[in-house]
Amino acid sequence: MKRVSTGILNLDSQLGGGFPAGSVILFIEDPGAGAEIYSYHFVHDGIKKGEQSLYIATNDTADDIRDSMKLYLGIGDDEFEKVKFMDFLSARVGALGVRESLTLSGDPYNKVITETSRNYSRVVLNSLSYFAENYDRKSVLGLIESMKISAKRNEAVHMIIFTKGMFNMEFETAVKQVVDGVIELSIREAETEIQRRLKIVKLKRTLVPKTIFRYDISDRGIRMESVTRVL
Question: KaiC domain location, by residue (predicted)?
Fold first, then answer.
């Protein structure tokens, strides 16, 4: 079975080599847990392999994401040629008369369905929360189903970022049910430090480890030790 690397070696080793091709993976996180940095590693791995990627940004501008990827992963400007950005934050700012050149016309929902159907090897939606705030439940689940079809057809992996606790638990459960994989990122305070933890809840076609893993965010992105665990 084809696997698509997460871009983080120690996470790949826990997943049997990476995410199964043809799947939609949900990263559901506590605010500040750093799911977007996992997405940077994921896209950067695609860049290194010459794969075409799509990054859908709703909470940051494309420039902000590029700057963050440069900061954490040392990516050069010329390396972004293989990454297409859909920047809905700049579009909203542009509608107010600022950065009008970046304004995207048309309904975001339909634009995402159309663009994710194209032949990308890797897709990031950051984040689903934007669509959950602006569309009804049936539409949001329909968006995920559309991404699943596209991912399977293209043998791609689509990563969706979603924030915990913003919506009711029934909706969160429905989202977790419809995707192919769920990875939860959480934050806990322990004495004088913040601890970040990763739990692989489900992943189709994969023997899911029972361990909860610790990780840190460093100046080189995510640092996750394969032997670090929380029992």
Answer: 2-231
Q: Are strands 157-163 and 23-29 parallel, antiparallel or unpaired?
A: parallel
Query: Is 228 inside any structural domain?
Result: no
Tell me if 49 is assigned to some domain: yes
Is residue 127 reached through a cis peptide bond, with omega within 30 degrees of 0 on the bond before it?
yes
Separation of alpha carbons 103 and 34, rounded Å: 27
Query: What does the alpha-carbon distance between residue 29 and residue 36 come to, in Å, rounded to a whole number?
Result: 10
152 within domain boundaries? yes
**pLDDT 10s digits, 169-216:** 999 999 999 999 999 999 998 878 899 999 999 999 999 999 999 999
Q: What are 211's two structure tokens? A: 């361990």
Residue-range definition of the domain harbouring residue 52:
3-223
CATH number at residue 67: 3.40.50.300
**Inside any domain, residue 184:** yes
Secondary structure (H, E, C), the chain: CCEECCCCHHHHHHCCCCEECCEEEEEEECCCCCHHHHHHHHHHHHHHCCCCEEEEECCCCHHHHHHHHHHHHCCCHHHHHHEEEEEHHHHHHHHCCCCHHHCCCCCHHHHHHHHHCCCCCEEEEECHHHHHHHCCHHHHHHHHHHHHHHHHHHCCEEEEEEECCCCCHHHHHHHHHHCCEEEEEEEEEECCEEEEEEEEEEECCCCCCCCEEEEEEECCEEECCCCCCEC
pTM of the model: 0.92
Q: What angle do CA 126, 108, 163 make, to 5 degrees?
A: 30
